[in-house]
Amino acid sequence: MIYQLLHRLQEQAVEDNGQVIVLLGNHEVMNMVGDYRFVTPEESSAYDRQTSREEKFGPNGFPGKWIRTWPVIVRIEGNVFVHGGLADSTMEHDIKGINRRFHHAYKAQNFTEFYYDDEFLSGHDSVLWNRDLIKLDEPVACRRAYRTLSKWNAERIIVGHTIQHDRHILKRCQNVDNPDLYMIYGIDVALSSAFGESGASYLEIFNTYDDQYNQTSTVIRETEMNRIVKRRGVKRARAFLDLDHY
After folding, report:
1. In terms of DSSP bridges, do strands 73-76 and 215-224 run parallel, antiparallel, or are they unpaired?
2. Beta-sheet strand order (sheet of 156-159)
3. What is residue 147's three-state secondary structure?
4. Phi/psi of residue 203, each to 5°?
5. pLDDT of residue 191
6. Is the separation of the CB atoms in 78 and 157 below 8 Å?
């Protein structure tokens, strides 16, 4: 089960002085509220043979209890990560406030009813469901991203949720000072075999140090899933992939 793997990776990362951050996505919440539209018969039968799916994704089950600790949006240095995207209304909130709103909802006696009654959580503008940064005309998306990222003191945003059918990471809003960097990255490259067996990739972000100029620079690149890359002179590296359509 993918959740067991992620949970193990998170524990192992701590032991190795690393960190695995898992973001909440729309499919986790769909399971939490009993919306099983995309659950296959094979998956359903696997749960029925043990504990019911409702119990597993409930507040005391696994992965349900663990999922309720996940953030819906994070900022790591100059990078913002969110599952869906940003609506104009998102600018009214800071990152801590957005996460606080979701974590407060989990404590509701009837989370399903609470979720559907709150457009901030379940509506088109929700960070779980919004696709604007990928679907809007690029100049419009760039202006929205710039306004929000400026407020949050960040440089770029990485989103999932919206499938890139060419199986490559989408890059929008090129940096005029450094054409190798962009402001928006869409990293849902459809890892699921339901979309075919062609190769997939992940986004890698790392810093390199230039001895000659005595400065650190950020490198962001798409790396194929079947490649293991050893970096020289890299102190910290991060890799990001979207499991929404795994």
Report:
1. unpaired
2. 73-76, 79-82, 156-159, 182-186, 170-174
3. helix
4. -95, 130
5. 80
6. no
Categorize the per-residue pLDDT at 198 as very low, low, confident or very high, splitting at 50, 70 and 90: low
Indicate the pLDDT class of residue 190, thresholds 50, 70 and 90: confident
Phi, psi of 155, deg, nearest 5: -110, -25
Mapped onto helix, strand or coil, the DSSP state of residue 134 is helix
Residues paired with residue 201 on neighbouring β-strands, in sequence order: 224
| Assessment of whether the complete model's pTM goes beyond 0.85 | yes
Domain boundaries defined on the chain: 1-70
Phi, psi for 206 (deg, rounded to 5): -150, 160
The first and second tokens of residue 225, run together, are 């899933």
Please provide the size of the chain in residues: 246
Q: What is the pLDDT of residue 228?
A: 47
User: In the Cβ-directed half-sphere of 35, how many Cα atoms lie within 13 Å?
Assistant: 12
pLDDT tens by residue, 50-71: 578 899 999 999 999 999 999 9
SS3 state at 107: coil
d(CA 22, CA 20): 6
Long-range contacts of residues 71-77, Cβ cutoff 8 Å, at least 24 apart: 71/21, 71/23, 71/24, 71/99, 72/23, 72/24, 72/98, 72/99, 72/102, 72/127, 72/128, 73/23, 73/98, 73/99, 73/127, 74/21, 74/23, 75/152, 75/154, 76/21, 76/238
Task: Return phi, psi of residue 18, to 5°.
Answer: -115, -165
Quote the CA–CA distance of 207 and 191 in Å, as a whole number: 26
Average pLDDT, the chain: 87
